[in-house]
Amino acid sequence: MSDLIVRVAARGEGVTADGRHAAFAAPGDTLTPENIVLPGPHQQAPPCRHFPQCGGCQLQHLDDESYAAFLTDRITGALAAQGVAAPIRPPALSPPRTRRRAALQAESKGGAVTLGFSEGASHNIVDLRDCWILTPALFAVIAPLRKLLARVLKGRARIHLTEIDQGVDVLIEGKIADGLAAIEAVTAFCLANQIARLAIDDGIGPETRWEPDGVTITLGGVAVPFPAGSFLQATREGEGALVAAVKEAVGGATVCADLFAGLGTFALSLPGKVYAAEAGRDVVLALQAGAARAGRAVFAEHRDLFRRPLTAAECDRFHAIILDPPRAGAKEQISQLAASNVPIIAYVSCNPSSFARDTDILCKGGYTLDWVQPVGQFRWSTHVELAGRFRRT
Ligand SMILES: C[S@@+](CC[C@H](N)C(=O)[O-])C[C@H]1O[C@@H](n2cnc3c(N)ncnc32)[C@H](O)[C@@H]1O
């Protein structure tokens, strides 16, 4: 008997109602008893020639309707596992070719360099000749960078590319040849491609080799210095959707805290006074400098919120608290929030499972989850981002 694919599982396979899994299957496809996938109405022709080898995208075979449903299902499923239900809004999907940051792999072997994303669950690198997710500016750098690396790279490296205010920021984590020829090759590459900054980290932290003008990223209208390799929301559209959700969540609050603040994506987008806490030292210094220069009422503190979360009493000083922790969530901070009386919590998350676990703690502490806004800024990958509003009831 053939079975209909009804949903897409967390790791990207299609699943039938009775739990059979099939790779590259979309909802509406049919899975035959021989495990052959017969395409249905939600299969689309994957646009990229590197699909499915490239680990950058796992879901290019889904049309936007089923990709959006995948994001929603992941959140609904994680919340249901904790016994929580909440209204889930239609996902905000970033268009193709808008990813402004990427971590690629490079390997130099016999004078040739392979540069691209890793294959899924493997160390093999897909040599990127086509990409439907990177911004045109980032993709334009790939071919000249491959040529440069063929001259200077020793062994393997991780390459971080980020599009910032001045252009493309390149961070090479790996070993580069010494000597004048290598220095000249790096300079010529940067000049020819109008690179904003090039830094090399061979194990002791990023060393800048090229930066004609101080580099910045503009957040909430403020140009913030951009430390090499810093976190940035993956697309401008994703950042816009998350900022809009956070602003809506906090409403008219004029005294807010932004926890896990990074360079100030949310802190600098809010009116009124903002306390920002962040564990990255360079990042806090950058936020302080940007906010001070722009005359913004942002007080940024270097603070490890896992070891030293804001206490419930500290939380009570704010009208609203925003938090955007790493994938593990923020169990320690959430326990303090659950014991606080802060009226509104805007929780931004990149992991539905830790979000659902933290939601359960907040709900048991007397908060209600009003809504969740899913954000698909890692288009065609299995990453799910979201913002949710909690209200003390
Ligand atoms: C998902 S990023 C969010 C950054 C920022 N909200 C944004 O949107 O650009 C998480 C941030 O948490 C910071 N972080 C990680 N562990 C932390 C900790 N224990 N205490 C405080 N901040 C931490 C990271 O440095 C990073 O900037």
UniProtKB/TrEMBL annotation:
<feature type="binding site">
    <location>
        <position position="278"/>
    </location>
    <ligand>
        <name>S-adenosyl-L-methionine</name>
    </ligand>
</feature>
<comment type="similarity">
    <text>Belongs to the class I-like SAM-binding methyltransferase superfamily. RNA M5U methyltransferase family.</text>
</comment>
<dbReference type="InterPro" id="IPR029063">
    <property type="entry name" value="SAM-dependent_MTases_sf"/>
</dbReference>
<dbReference type="InterPro" id="IPR030390">
    <property type="entry name" value="MeTrfase_TrmA_AS"/>
</dbReference>
<dbReference type="GO" id="GO:0008168">
    <property type="term" value="F:methyltransferase activity"/>
</dbReference>
<dbReference type="InterPro" id="IPR010280">
    <property type="entry name" value="U5_MeTrfase_fam"/>
</dbReference>
<protein>
    <submittedName>
        <fullName>RNA methyltransferase</fullName>
    </submittedName>
</protein>
<keyword id="KW-0949">S-adenosyl-L-methionine</keyword>
<keyword id="KW-0808">Transferase</keyword>
<dbReference type="Pfam" id="PF05958">
    <property type="entry name" value="tRNA_U5-meth_tr"/>
</dbReference>
<feature type="binding site">
    <location>
        <position position="324"/>
    </location>
    <ligand>
        <name>S-adenosyl-L-methionine</name>
    </ligand>
</feature>
<feature type="active site" description="Nucleophile">
    <location>
        <position position="350"/>
    </location>
</feature>
<feature type="binding site">
    <location>
        <position position="260"/>
    </location>
    <ligand>
        <name>S-adenosyl-L-methionine</name>
    </ligand>
</feature>
<dbReference type="GO" id="GO:0032259">
    <property type="term" value="P:methylation"/>
</dbReference>
<feature type="active site">
    <location>
        <position position="350"/>
    </location>
</feature>
<keyword id="KW-0489">Methyltransferase</keyword>
<feature type="binding site">
    <location>
        <position position="233"/>
    </location>
    <ligand>
        <name>S-adenosyl-L-methionine</name>
    </ligand>
</feature>
